[in-house]
């Protein structure tokens, strides 16, 4: 099963994700993510046998203790892209308030999971919520204009836990299910 560690956005904030996606609805080749599944990925683990879940759960507990992060408020807003405005693959909303706490959690999770043999990240961690993926260059100028000229606010929410989630690919896109929750 494909596993990752994330912070889910509450339903009230996820509704705002849909509103921001609407700003980009005229940008040709975007494939929008499901706002009801909006989250911030802290660590992607990838294809993992189910019998490894107990050791992952123990590592996540250790990482949360090491990060020393209690419940905190996070604000999501503004727009960005990966990898660059010249070559857009992902359109996202950034984490503004709460980014430092999420980064501490990410770094601790990275240490613990790489110690278990999971691949380390090859890029700098940027806490974000994926809004869409760009299939081709149609609409690139519209996305570029939005990123450079608009700063929509999605909302603020209380982060109380980290979740181990599994991702199953479906004809309509990925479907996420929480496997375990870890309180901060």
Report on the architecture of this protein.
The structure is a single chain. By secondary structure, the chain is an alpha+beta fold. It has one domain (about 1-184): Alpha-Beta Complex (Cyclic Phosphodiesterase, Chain: A), CATH 3.90.1140. About 30% of the residues lie in helices and about 40% in strands. It is built from 4 helices and 9 strands. The protein has helices spanning about 10-25, 55-65, 100-115, 140-150; strands at about 1-10, 30, 40-45, 70-85, 90-95, 130-135, 155-160, 160-170, 175-184. Strands 2-6-5-4-7 form a 5-stranded antiparallel β-sheet. Strands 3-1-8-9 form a 4-stranded antiparallel β-sheet. A hairpin with a 2-residue loop joins strand 8 and strand 9. Helix 2 (about 55-65) packs across helix 3. The protein is globular. The mean pLDDT is about 95. This is RNA 2',3'-cyclic phosphodiesterase. It holds the Pfam family 2_5_RNA_ligase2. Keywords: Hydrolase. Its EC number is 3.1.4.58. It catalyses: a 3'-end 2',3'-cyclophospho-ribonucleotide-RNA + H2O = a 3'-end 2'-phospho-ribonucleotide-RNA + H(+).
């Amino acid at each position: 099963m494909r596993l990752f560690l994330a912070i889910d956005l509450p339903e009230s904030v996820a509704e705002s994700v849909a509103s921001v996606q609407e700003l980009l609805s005229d940008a040709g080749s975007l494939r929008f993510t499901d706002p009801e599944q909006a989250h911030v990925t802290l660590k992607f683990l990838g294809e993992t046998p189910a019998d490894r879940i107990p050791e992952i759960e123990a590592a996540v507990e250790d990482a949360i203790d090491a990060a020393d992060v209690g419940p905190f408020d996070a604000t999501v807003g503004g727009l960005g892209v990966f990898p660059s405005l010249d070559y857009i693959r992902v359109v996202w909303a950034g984490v503004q308030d709460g980014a430092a706490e999420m980064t501490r959690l990410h770094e601790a999770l990275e240490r613990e999971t790489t110690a278990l043999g999971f691949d380390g990240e090859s890029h700098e961690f940027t806490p974000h919520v994926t809004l869409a993926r760009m299939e081709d260059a149609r609409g690139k100028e519209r996305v570029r204009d939005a990123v450079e000229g608009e700063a929509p606010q999605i909302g603020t929410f209380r982060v109380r836990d980290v979740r181990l989630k599994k991702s199953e690919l479906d004809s309509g896109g990925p479907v996420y299910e929480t496997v375990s929750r870890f309180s901060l």
